[in-house]
Amino acid sequence: MPLTDIQCKKAAPGEKDYKLSDSGGLYLFVTTKGAKSWRLKYRFAGREKRLVMGLYPDVTLKDARDRRDDAKKLLREHKDPLIEERKRKAAAHSAAGATFKVVAERWYAAQLGRWARVNATKIAQALKRDVYPEIGALPLVDIDGPTVLALLRKIEKRGAIDSAKRIRQHISAVFGYGMAEGLCFADPAGQHLLKAMLPTPVGGSQPGLGSIEEIRELHATVDASTGCDLTKLASRLLGLTFVRPGLIPTARWEEFEGIDWNDPSGAGDAEEPAWRIRAERMKLEQDNKADDAFEHIVPLVPQAVDVLRAVRRLSGRFPYLFHSVRSTHKPMSANTLGYRYNECGYRDRHVPHGWRTSFSTIMNERATLLDREGDRAVIDAMLSHKPRGISAAEMAYNRARHMPRRWELARWWADETMKGLVPANELVAWDDRAC
What is the C-alpha to C-alpha distance for residues 95 and 368, in angstroms, rounded to an integer? Predict the structure, then answer.
């Protein structure tokens, strides 16, 4: 029989939670602590589901029956009452100010502890430049797949295919955060959107030359170019160390070990000088950036030391090896080398990050020809590729185990790619320097 209001009022807590049935799937759920809530049991798409419709007596028996009837009407329209309730709540949140920008800024603040500073800056810039002007003012629940896709296609049109894919990930993460907070019920920027986006060009977005001969030609072309001498030296050092390009402009003198700067002959240098890059400067998970075991050690072959000695004469008084043309106490722009390569005719053929592509491609092919399968792990170590799930102890052990072979491969690479090129010291017009 249907419930009465008196029964609802007198329903007392028991030793276990229990329910008092009304009609049409509606019942009053009573907990052991005396809380009473209205619930509706129904079936949708063959599955049994439950909808919580509020606490008694805030929601009266009559109110609960009205909500039950509304839910039944939705079922007749082939709509899930639970989903529709979530939409209603999300819309209410949106009306209270849950726009994409508001939620994205909350998501961003929650992630800051997990990101490196440079990565956090790039994400903030991408959102401000490409996302907020398009959907920042829209409530999350009003943003659908076609809206997000239109935004991403604008980015693709300027040739930034990989950027469009990364921004899709950021947008999707914001919607994931919004779903967890109950501000929306779906992610319109999920991976399904990739099927409608342009594919990444063959070879990726970091083109690099594929042979030793082409690399020698690039070095020679940059050497002969006009402009800042520091840029030529930066290019040569990057080609010899193949570190991530952002590490070159921000390199500081104290990171280089085993070089006697007071003796130009090199007689006082250590047998194996090195560039020790702290873990906090590397592309690592935030938890590993404070662990010295994850620092990156770059062998400094004689050709690299020659570059450093030439740079020392130019900028040894300043904190950065490769300083800005505007300020000797600020690093060179991260775009400087890319601009120089474009000016030298290498647009879409070789970019600063392409040195890593070139080294990996050529050295892995060589390892296959020489039947040295073990070199693949050494090459990865030289590129500072961290194996997934490796511990700090394993990382330190692997680094020590691979170091002798890393030196051998670094020497071979330098000897082959520098063959026939002038010494680094001759790249600088000491009497009439370009910068």
Answer: 61
Residue with tokens 């394993």: 394
Q: Which two tokens stand for residue 428?
A: 């600088």
**In the structure, what pLDDT confidence band is assigned to residue 201 with cuts at 50, 70 and 90?**
low
Helix (H) / strand (E) element for 134: namely helix 132-135
Which of 118-132, 204-218, 285-299 is least confident?
285-299
Give the tens place of pLDDT for each residue, 334-360.
889 999 999 999 988 999 999 999 999
Residue 293 has pLDDT above 90, yes or no: no
CA proximity to 152, closest of 112, 194, 185: 194
Condensed to tens digits (0 to 9), the pLDDT of residues 216-246 reads 999 999 999 988 889 999 999 999 999 999 9
> Could you tell me if 361 and 208 are in contact, meaning their C-beta atoms sit under 8 angstroms apart?
yes
The answer to whether 262 and 250 are in contact (CB under 8 A) is no
Give the separation between CA 156 and CA 163, rounded to whole angstroms: 8
Residue 21 CB partners (closer than 8 Å, separation 6+): 3, 27
Q: Give the mean pLDDT of 153-169.
A: 86
The DSSP secondary-structure symbol of 272 reads S
Over residues 300-313, the pLDDT tens digits come to 999 999 999 999 99
CA distance 373 to 376: 6
- What's at 106, amino acid-wise? R
Quick: pLDDT tens for 357-374.
999 999 999 998 889 988
d(CA 262, CA 246): 28
End-to-end CA distance of the chain: 93
Q: Name, in order, each residue with C-beta under 8 angstroms of 60's C-beta and a sequence gap of 6 or more.
A: 5
Helix, strand, or coil here: 20?
strand
Tokens 């790249």 belong to 427
Q: Residue 112, Cβ neighbours under 10 Å: how many?
A: 12
Give the count of alpha carbons within 13 A of 236, CB side only: 35
Task: State how far the alpha carbon of 421 is from the alpha carbons of 216, 220, 223, 236, 249, in Å.
Answer: 8, 7, 9, 11, 23
β-pairing, 47-55 with 256-257? Answer: unpaired
| CA 395 – CA 393 distance, rounded (Å) | 5
Is the separation of the CB atoms in 174 and 103 below 8 Å?
Answer: yes
pLDDT at 182: 81
Distance CA 236, CA 232 (A): 6
Q: Please, which residues bridge with residue 48 across strands?
A: 43
